[in-house]
Specification:
Layout (H helix, E strand, L loop, with lengths): L1 H10 L1 H23 L26 H27 L6 H17 L8 H25 L6 H23 L5 H24 L2
Helix pairs in contact: 2-3, 2-7, 3-4, 4-5, 5-6, 5-7, 6-7
């Protein structure tokens, strides 16, 4: 009985790790949002604003910054654990490549601790690194479960992954004022695809 329970827990390993990553970010960003020294516009402001040393009004933002930094560090640590998971699971396809991408993602989260207002370039590099890494992992996972899905379902998840994140990338590149709004849709599409695909991969 115990062995069977352990087997089921291990079966859900990858899915559980990404669910933990999602939970960490929901809790961490919520605490940072509640601690923001002012009114944080969740739709229009990028999450990066939560990790700035000062608010847009010039007020000290230490409390929100601390929660944001803890969230980034824990997320980075979680991605490094996911990298180790891939290295220990020899039966997973291209596990070494996934481990490397996951490790790079983890480092991106940690570099993103750099405040957007005082270390903008470094923060952008870190954020772009972890988002791009998660995007690549999502595409790999989605490709691996393609045979388990109907064409309609496959292209549905492909669309909610690609369209929002490409739109967000273009808005950032063109420095459009609605990039904070598009960021939320990009992250939702990314996370939905990640969670769904790892769930299908973890349990046959």
């Amino acid at each position: 009985m115990k062995e069977k329970l352990l087997y089921r827990i291990l079966d859900y390993g990858l899915f559980a790790l990404f669910m933990a990553l999602l939970a960490l970010n929901i809790i961490g960003l919520t605490l940072a949002n509640l601690s923001y020294n002012g009114e944080f516009d969740l739709l229009d402001y990028p999450f990066s604003y939560l990790g700035m040393t000062k608010t847009l009004e010039g007020l000290s933002n230490t409390k929100a910054l601390i929660f944001y930094d803890i969230d980034m560090i824990l997320s980075g640590t979680m991605m490094l654990l996911i990298a180790l998971y891939f290295l220990q699971k020899e039966e997973l396809k291209s596990n070494t490549n996934k481990a490397v991408i996951s490790a790079i993602c983890g480092l991106g989260f940690i570099v993103a601790v750099s405040p957007d207002d005082t270390m903008h370039s470094l923060h952008v590099i870190g954020s772009a690194t972890f988002v791009a890494s998660l995007w690549i992992l999502s595409m790999i996972f989605l490709r691996e479960i393609k045979n388990k899905l109907s064409k309609v379902k496959y292209y549905f998840f492909w669309s909610i992954l690609q369209i929002p994140i490409i739109s967000y990338a273009i808005s950032v590149f063109l420095d459009k004022p609605y990039d904070g709004f598009l960021q939320k849709f990009a992250l939702i599409g990314l996370l939905v695809t990640l969670i769904y695909s790892t769930r299908r991969l973890s349990v046959n």
